[in-house]
Amino acid sequence: MIQEPVSSEPAPEPEATRRDAGVTESARANRGWWDRNADEYQVEHGTFLGDDRFVWGPEGLDEVEAELLGPPEELKGKAVLEIGAGAAQCARWLAAQGARPVALDLSHRQLQHALRIGGSFPLVCADAGALPFADETFDLACSAYGALPFVADPVLVLREVRRVLRPGGRFVFSVTHPIRWAFPDEPGPQGLSVSASYFDRTPYVEQYIENGEGRAVYVEHHRTLGDRVRDIVTAGLRLVDLVEPEWPAWNTAEWGGWSPLRGNLIPGTAIFVCVRD
Description:
Strand order of the largest sheet: 4-3-2-5-6-10-9
Low-confidence stretches: none
Largest sheet: 7 strands, mixed
Shape: globular
Number of helices: 7
Distance between the termini: 42 Å
Helix content: 25-40%
Number of strands: 10
Strand content: 15-25%
Structural class: alpha/beta
Mean pLDDT: 95
């Protein structure tokens, strides 16, 4: 049973800035953010995500059609790790195909929503940079907008994923398309004009100022496309595909800065398909 959060007076809005944020600060801030915002996130996006769909991003690309992890009939019996699982919608879909998923998330509150929806697979609350599994445990791993946009050291996560994958295993992950960092995060026409340098890797931070110093409550990290490719190679994985989903005609929804207007002009999601040799 999910306990209702304790009611309190609305907190003041944090300030948004761009500044450095390391591994520990990023993890602490984002664990707290997702614990506080999990309820609102599931209410706002739960219908789009479904309880047991595998959607790679706001465009609505579904694993049923994409088959980035392989044909559904070949998933039966495969051990699959979902990283940044949220309410474990993707893991639930994998279980329905006969796979043996494990859903991992940094946020305890997100995993409470996974419990609320239900499922017979394990739920693990842990940091993606320190996966609590033995070497070569999984056949496949996946992450739909989970973990990698929020970590200061993506190579650490990718190396951990490689460690727990069996030889020949595949890791597929989606993130905000790096080109979006050059544009305002707005779904309307104001989101179509370049406003920042694509090459500025300074993290986006939401923070409160306490005793003259910033206390981060949300952190997101930017990597260019080239950075992502180099991170994958440095971690010992092989990139076999890079998918940039086009915005489909059926999708009329807005999700933050994602919208049909922007989606028809610039990519919003990048999906990296990697293999451990």
